[in-house]
Amino acid sequence: MLWLKLLRSFFKALRASEHPNQIAGGFALGFAAGLLPGWPLQVWIIVFLLLLLNVNLSLAFAGAACAAALAWLLDPAIEPLGRWLLTGVAGLRPLWTTLYNQPLWLLTRFNNTTMMGAMAVGLALVPAVFFGLRALTKRYQNWLRDISENWRIMKWLRASRVFGFFSRLAG
Amino acid sequence: MRIFRSSFLLVLAVFVSIGAAAFWVFRNGMVERMIERQLTTAFDAQSDIDDLSFNIFNMGAGFSHLSIGDKDQPMRNLVETGNARFHLELTPLLMRKVVIDEMSIEQIGVQTPRNSNNSAAILHAPTPGPAAEAPSPPPATAKSDSPSPSATAPATPNAWDKLRAQTPKIDLQALEQRVDVTGLVQQGGLGSVKYVNEIKESRTKMFKDWDDRLNKSNLEHDFESLLADIKRIDVAAIKDPKAAKDALEALKSARDKHEKVKSTFNGMNFDAQRDLATLKDTWQGLNQRVDDDVNAVKRLAKLSGINTRDAAQMVFGPAILQQFSTINGYLGRAKRIVSGDPADKKPPRRAGVNIQFPLEKPRPPDFLIRHIGVSGTLADQTTKISGDLRGVTTQPDAYGLPTTLQLRMISAARGVWKVNGEFDHRKTRDLDSLSFKGDNIDLGRIELQSDGNNPMPSAFHPRDADITLAMQLDQGKLRGEIALIAPKVEFDFGIAPAANATAEVVRKLFADIHDVRIEGQVGGTWDQPTLKLQSNVDTILSQRLGQIIQQKTAAVEQQIRQAIDAQILKEKAQVDVLIKGQQTALENRMKALAGNNAEVAKAVDKAGKELEKKSTQGAKDVGKKLEDQAKSKLKSLKF
To answer: What's the pTM?
Structure first.
């Protein structure tokens, strides 16, 4: 029932007339954090940014959940990608060696194959997610708001007991 | 749209909350409990830590009390400490590595008794009685002070017990007590008695077989039949050539038949003589079996297998093994604790692999305490302990140096002990060694192998002794050495000298022994240790023990032999009579057959000769008759 929760967060943000940057930024930051395994330094930085920046926190959680699920599914591809970046690209080795010898960078766990793969995927996907979602929100915000308020299925969803249960659960 | 949240204070509050939560976690003992759980898991025994503190500003930490239980002895602590202070290094912490440069521990104690509430005794109210005494770490001290061998032997608790059981034993008590020879003889199921019975059965069977064979052969009947056949040849009644021819045929038939019967008889006679000859060797193996029985009964009486050549091994072996076993136990524990061999586990999904890159300077291991300084007073309040433990780490290869231990224990009563240990678990080597050295020390009472009623000494007490005890485990191979030089030695005895004569002799035997020097080597493997022991008391002890044992053994052996003889002599005599009777019967029967055979042969010869004579005479008569007829014809032809 996670999708119901996500949908609810999304439409709630639309109804609140939040700025597309807030919506897309929250989701993209959450997406970036969710892709990364564990709690390395960069996740704490993202958490700090989420708290500092005026972005939608609900969508950040939604983005993190989506990204975590995606990363789990794509792990067989992400891990080899990270391994290739760390060991297969000769030009990057001096950079990794330099970073490896600086303790602070080790907090990012960049030398872990899954972490490196996830960071690479994140760097590629997060801007696309941010700009894509922002464009979609700008273009369809009014239309989506109408949908959320008038469409029968959305009314049915809002009226359903399951939706009510998860609404209560989400506060 | 504003870029930053209007309520940035909220962000601040969140971080303050996190800090407060961390403070609360440290304050309320959650970390204490977590560490206790980790230690309990690691050592497989109840572990407690009190008053854990942590200063985030200077990375200082400490605790007021730590006790780690001994899984082999639940009522004792493996180690117990008082106050401890240490500092975590910040830079390695950023690399998720715990490195402690200096750690000081006060009031360290080993093998301390645990209170009922699982807290240690030495730092709280001391428990009265022997259990409250802290065991002295030196391994060669009293047995009661050291952990039991079964408790300390780590990998193979029975290996040392087995080795101890294999050391020669002097069971003078068995010699001293009245040996129930009759009972032992009956209990043993004597081989010599069985042998007599077997002889009886085999001989009875042999004679029965002969009876059957003779009866089936019909030799007697055959001989009688032959005689009758020969008697039927009436030479005098032969009147014509046809009758002579018939008589010759009958005689030839009788001869052929006799040849066959004689051949059968000769074969049987040969076999009979051969079997009868074996009767001479009937009792040949009996003496050997009686000797075997005597030895077997001696074994039952625990009188044999006493090797007096290595008296030191017999007297001191078990006690020395006890000490080796103890130090081996410490070695095993140290090996378990410092061993940094992480188990290979398949990484879970999304765990990835950490790629290593060249380092500009060596990186510390995941966990390292570079130096632990320990100090304190043991529970007996007279032994002061101080020392250093260096290089405690979970990754010996990353650290690059072995873990080393130096301890010094000074006791007014027991002298000075130095303990040195080195535990090298780098991949290039797997070497653990631990040594104890004591100078001019009182070793206390060392238990010997005794059951309390044995006239042998139950303990010895070396004074002003120099002792070196070392154990090394190198790639699975065990090497241990002990050297003990004691100018003064006192022996304790389990029973009073007046109890019996042997006790008196044994007491005198050990009375004037001093300047004892014992050297022992343990070898083999962790699972199968071996022991060699030499002592300067070997010669004197072995000679004196040999005399005692020889006297006692000779007397008991004679007693056993008499009992065995008494049991088998009667049986043997009966079998002899039986064999003699059967032998005579068989011999008589064979003689009779031989007589029959001779008689038949004689009759055949006689009949043959008579027939020959008759045939010669007949031929002469016929010739004369023909001559007369011819002469008569010639006369008639004269003109």
So the answer is: 0.50
